[in-house]
User: What shape does this take?
Amino acid sequence: MSARPGERQKPKIATVSLAGCFGCHMSILDIDERILDLAKVVEFSRSPINDLKKFDGRCAVGIVEGGCANEENVEVLREFRRKCDILVSLGDCATMGGIPALRNSIPLSECLETAYLDGPTVVNPLGRIPSDEEIPLLLDKVYPCHEIVKIDLFLPGCPPSAEAIFSALTGILGKSRPDLPYELLKYD
Amino acid sequence: MITKNGYRRIVIEPVTRVEGHGKVTILLDEAGKVARARLHIVEFRGFERFIEGRPFWEMPVAVQRLCGICPVSHHLCAAKAVDRIVGGEKLTPTAEKVRRLMHYGQFLQSHALHFFHLCSPDLLFGFDSDVANRNVLGVAARYPELAKKGILLRKYGQEVIRVTAGKRIHGTGAIPGGVNKNVNAAEREYLKKDIDQILAWSEESLAIAKQYTVDHLAEIAEFGSFPSNHLAVVRADGAMDLYDGGLRAVDAEGSVIFDHFDDQRYYEAIGEEVRDWSYMKFPFIRSLGMEHGWYRVGPLARVNACDFIDTPKAEAARKEFKGLAGGKPVNVTMAYHWARMIELVHAAEKIALLLDDPDIGGTELLASGRRRREGVGVLEAPRGTLFHHYRVDENDQIAMANLIVSTTSNNEPMNRAVEKVAKDHLSGVEITEGLLNHVEVAIRAYDPCLSCATHALGRMPLVVEVVDAAGCVVDRKARD
Ligand code: SF4
Assistant: This one.
């Protein structure tokens, strides 16, 4: 969607889910009908809720849900850093690793064995553990985003509320420091 | 890109407008014929292992972090399992009805999200319409009223969840043996105020899905379709029941494979196969074996498997739907959308009934009884039958966890749909972005939740790859 002549190009927003559960994206949609107002002042670049699979230009804001659990997450996160002016870690998984990081204290092989070899319903006579060039390599641990790239804004919460997300976005787009009162910032 | 075996490989990555992370690879031979197409789940979290050692009462709040689209399903399914550990599976009427209200709210929001936010562009604009418009904002630009209704339907479902669970995503309402709050008079009035409007909009959505199916029947009858078994939970009298009941499996012709199977022994009925190329396992009905035992779950399977629906509008719609196949199970993949909207109406009707029920305001919230070391929870999530199974040790810590999430059951069917659409539409032609979207349309019909499917918190972009006869990647169409 390119701007008509004379119309100022709208700032672009890109979003991605790395090792997250999509709950943070759902919380973005929880701004409900205000998404229609937001669409008047911004344009969406790549995001799992549209069909743009790659960046279509530089973005004012990049929103990242989830930390990094595999090599592909790292690649995508680095690309977000390169293509976005302001990068936001959205939610507890992006800011701290969240629930997926519970695996950090356990050897990865044990996690795989429990899922694919043990368990009352597993039928796996050949003892297969998924491994194929089509599926990305897992990292030893789950890393929060700021351990991989520089992050400009952290929004805690599991997920952060729609109010917190909306206030943060309007702040960033209005070029002011987002005004996030204490009640909007929850670690859960 | 050419693979080492001489195949051309095309990739769709990530699969978009679905929940979670996945990719599709397609292999083409020298003549440009599709040799193989697969959907891969590329994320792994390891949930079953890392919750070992956690206290069992954490399960309803921890495990729902598998999925932010259907957290209520995991929340309630884990709660049903731990109810048994505290011996409180016979819930008080208030607890059961508040949980059901939460669950129907979840169906409303999840089905509305899927239909309006994720799939409507394919249905309204066509599978190969301009990529820039294929999203909910594109729909809002062309059909502002419709998009707004979709957004408000989802909002209402989310509000039902907020009232019953404390917050819209990852709430805390269900606890072992019951719930931690009732629905007070003010909350009841707040939700009642809009329910008539919600019912009317649900019926409009149903009409759209039905009309789409009827109008396009010629082109979609074969689209990614095949005969299959169907699995669902049904009530003792055969009614559709999304929250509780026994397991029923029927074959493609509607003959019963098993019925009212005790959910506590689910593992005797269902097994899961592991394959190298996907983190998602492949479940099957044990009595039929790996090769023939695969089955579908979700709206299509539920409407096919039940004898009737216990709310009038949804039941009338079910009868009409079954007419598509002369009363036998409907095996058309794209009919998932129509079946899903029948359930949207059913959820709205159920919410209306519960909001008039005095029990939701009751004060008996908890039940308990003889302690057990093990519990299984089974229910119907928006995407299909969901299983949670936990064993605890003498310190009440989790010793074993087994989860079969809804989307996992649809793994084989989705792969078959991908392969069929690829063979029917991509063989021997120049492959365009719009044609690749056909593959994703077939996947989206199942409303997969690939986050859930990683069996541990996950996500799912989709990549489609075309690989040549020798297994080399020919081309990678991540759409841009
Ligand atoms: S922070 Fe919570 S809601 Fe967000 S991705 Fe992680 S688990 Fe999901």
In short: Residues 93-125 of chain B form the longest helix (33 residues). The first strand of chain B starts at residue 7 and ends at 12.
